[in-house]
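RECORD CONTENTS
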Amino acid sequence: MDRKTVHLCAGMLAAALLWFYMFSPWTSGLSGFWLNMSISAVILGAIAISGSGGFRMDWGRVARQLPLGLVIAFALWGIFLIGDKLSSIMFDFARGQVNDIYALREGSSPVLVSLLLLLLIGPVEEYFWRGYVQKGLSERMGATAAMLVTAAVYALVHVWSFNFMLVAAAFVAGGVWGLIYRLRPSLLPALVVSHAVWDALVFVILPI
């Protein structure tokens, strides 16, 4: 494997290890969840920037794509609202597992959590998974295969939570963002906005 491929694989492995530490029943209580999430975002951001050869942000493009990012975020929130109703009908355990996810907010300031999701965790995750991983895989295996692999890996890093609803949610959200990136890579700024806003919406502002 060439150096960039090794870096890409190491980045995905790092994400898997970080999410294992945050979510596994053996390690999740060792330190605060939001501290772990913030540190993980910084690490993934550094990996993506170093693997991409630097970080460049066209703020004019971000501003132009801001409305689309908001539309995607609210549309995805609507999809999850419908999915929550359906999953509650289909699975007896669904609501309990969703409540377990929301329990991660307990003892934390809603304002602080919202700011972390909007300004750090959401944007960096999207830049890492779509702007680095999916982009890098697209150059090696084609755009469609890269979309599917990235969505699967993004979902599977949550598997150590042993929470089916969390893994399914990650797969659906990753699939939506991945499909949009597959069709229009130039919409990455809108996806970064949508990921950040959706995180804050579903977790703090308008929980489902």
Summary: The mean pLDDT is 94. The CA atoms of residues 60 and 66 lie 10 Å apart.
